[in-house]
Structure formats: C-alpha cells, structure tokens
Amino acid sequence: MANVFEEVVKEYHLFKNRDALSPHYIPPELPFREEEIRLLSQKLAPILSGKKPENIFIYGKTGTGKTAVTKKVLSDLNEYAKKKNIPVLGLYVNGRLHDSEHKVLLKLVRLLDPTQDLLGYSTSAVYDRFLEFLESGGIRVVIAIDEIDMVKRASDLIYRLNRSNDELSRSSVSLIGISNNPTFKDRLDARTRSTLCEVELVFKPYNAEQLRVILEERAKEAFKEGAVSDDAISLAAALAAKHSGDARYALLLLLRAGDIAEEEGAERVERKHVEEARRLVEEDIVYEMIATLPEQHRLVLLALSTLRLKGKGVSSFSGENVITSGLLYSYYTKIAEEYGVSPVSDRWFREYLNELDTYGIISVKVAGKGFRGNTRIVELNVDPRRLLQVVKKTL
Ligand SMILES: Nc1ncnc2c1ncn2[C@@H]1O[C@H](COP(=O)(O)OP(=O)(O)OP(=O)(O)O)[C@@H](O)[C@H]1O
Ligand SMILES: [Mg+2]
Questions:
Q1: Which atom of ligand 1 lies at the shortest distance from residue 203's CA?
Q2: Least crowded by CB within 10 Å, which of 223, 239, 288, 300?
Q3: How many angstroms separate the CA atoms of 192 and 347, rounded?
Q4: How far apart are alpha carbons 175 and 74 in whole angstroms?
Q5: Is 247 in the pocket of ligand 1 (CB under 6 A)?
Q6: What superfamily does domain 34-203 belong to in CATH?
Q7: Which is the closest atom of ligand 1 to the Cα of 217?
C-alpha cells in the first residue's frame, strides 16, 4: 500500500504558498496605504511620551485595508514600546466576534492577562478588573474595536471606556473604532459621536491599477514563477475595482482561480479561470452574508430551506408546489421555539421577508389566481442544501 500521506498532503504545481492569498495573511507591505499608516501612527505617537492620544474613528468600504493597517500599526506600536520599555499596549478586538459591551470587556481583560477567567461575572465587575489591571501596571492602552457597528449598544461601550479616563490616574484609555457601515456614525447619539470621532480617517476604495499592483505583490508570494498570467491578474483587478474597490474580493478571485487551475492541471492561471472563479466568489459572498444576518432572519431561512428540502408546500393554480407566507410563518414559529427563541409577530415576520427579498436571497410574490387576496408566495433564490448547512452552523 502506498504511503497514505502521499494522498492526503496535496502537492501543488502552481501554488508556492497558497496561504499568502488567505484573508488572514498579513502582508509585510501594504502598498497605497503609506499615508494612512503614517497618519495613524502620528496620531498614536503621543502615547509613547505619556500623553493620551485622541480617539479615532476609521471608516471605509469593505476591503479597503482598515483591518490590515490597524493591525500593522498596533503591532509596530507594541514592538516599539516593548523595546523601549514603555508601559504602552495596543489591544485589538473584533466586534463581530465580541458583539456586546460585556464580551468586549471580557476579551480586553483576557488580552491583558490570559490567566483571568471572569466568565459569569457581571459587566461592571469585569470592567473594574480591567481598570485595576491598567492602574496597577500604570499601563496606557489603545483599544481598537474593529467592526464596531456589530457591537450591540456600542454607545454604552464607547461611553464607558472613554469615561474610564476619569477614574484612572496612572494610566489611560484611547479608542479606535473601525467600521464599513455608512450609517453607524449617524446612529450614535451626538455625545458619543463626538467622543469617538475626535479624529476621523477615511479609507478610499482602491482603483483597478492599485488593485493590480496589490495582486501582483501577493501573487509573487503565493504562486510559483510564471504560474499566473498578467491577463488573469488584470482581470481580477478590474472586476474587484467594479466591486467597490474591494481588495479582499480581488484576493479571493485569485485564490479561487488558482484552485480551479490547479484542479484542471492547467499550466498557468488564465483569464478564464478568473471568470469561472467570479461565479464561485459571488456565491461565497452571499452565504457569508447569510451567516451574519440577525438570528430571526436566519431562523426564517432555516424554516424555508427545510420546507423546500422536504418538498412541503401548497399546490398552486398551475399545479406548482409553492410555499405561502402563511405556511412559512407557522413553520418558522415551530422552529424558533425548538431553538428556544420567541418567534416574532406576523407583522415583523412580513418585514423580515421584505428585507430578505431586498438582499436577493428570496423573492416574495403575490400568489394570485386560486389563492386568497393577499396571499404571498416565497421563493428561495439560493441552494437550500448549502443554505441549511450555513444557517445550522450559526444557530
Ligand atoms: N494595500 C494593501 N496591500 C496588500 N493587501 C491589502 C491591502 N489592503 C488590503 N489588503 C488585503 O485585502 C484584504 C482585505 O483588507 P482588510 O481586511 O484590511 O479590509 P477592511 O477595510 O478591514 O474590510 P472590512 O470593512 O470588510 O473589514 C486583506 O486580506 C488584506 O490583507
Ligand atoms: Mg476589516
């Protein structure tokens, strides 16, 4: 029998380091973000001489390098402070993973002291521990809260963290809030807004030429020499430029194109591989969006995909098997209860259907002939099997 690892450990003929295209890879250089990096580090620099930097709000569309730039600057800050023995720390928290005031505070304490386990403590107890820790070490911190719009009642968190400066004498807390949500800032009350947005940094979308350079750099890391055609890179860059200048989309296109070319045993990644990849990536994006929808929306989708897969429905005038909103509502109620969630009223349910329709995941239509006046039917626009998988994983 052949060595089993020969089979399992995949040999690539085009990729040299496939991970260099993954969304988690932090490239050593961030072309076209030199100015943003300089501004951010200038704004933070006072912390190194004992002053409290102003709070900063970073806004920009998705894939414009906000996370990459912030992580790079915080890691350089930490490295510098350590080398010079200055009690300064940059802390990074992602609001998507830690989506409440309580969870963010827990994460902060754990970043400061990984041995602390404050599970089950009240929010104010966790907060007190956080302050104690800073004050006892005289530590000045910059806290970056990425995707801050995902944190429930973010205002309370911002207010509390900023107010901590009144209680600290030897240490200080500065904030960086990061968001790609254009309405986030306006949703904050006036006082919180002026607290967080003392300094504002806006990241502009990349244009096609910038994306081409970014991709070229990453491709050098990721692929063997000559394994990607210039055409393929230009196309991926052009598509991503149309896709609101999103570098993540560009990288994902190239990654998927590389996978397709590998699978085919092609000699190089060509335009056609990027074109094929485009379809896959669009799909990935839809399912990723579904995974981050609010819980009630996901429960509605769980009910719909289950009904679809079970072939349940009502026969329409033309003999088609359709799912009416009434049928879906009663099934959704049942599923919500199974998951220990109180189902929303019929009125809210209709509102959710409209939202899911706007996102393009479902289509809601008037049932017409053979049905009562305002009966609506709900169609699913994505693969029910994959939808079920994605939603189940998140519930
Ligand atoms: N200037 C750049 N050079 C090289 N890679 C980049 C550059 N800007 C962004 N990237 C890469 O593109 C991807 C997306 O960037 P990043 O995660 O920083 O975007 P973002 O602005 O935080 O987006 P979102 O709002 O969706 O969180 C990452 O893989 C990142 O490494
Ligand atoms: Mg980000």
A1: 21
A2: 288
A3: 33
A4: 12
A5: yes
A6: P-loop containing nucleotide triphosphate hydrolases (3.40.50.300)
A7: 4
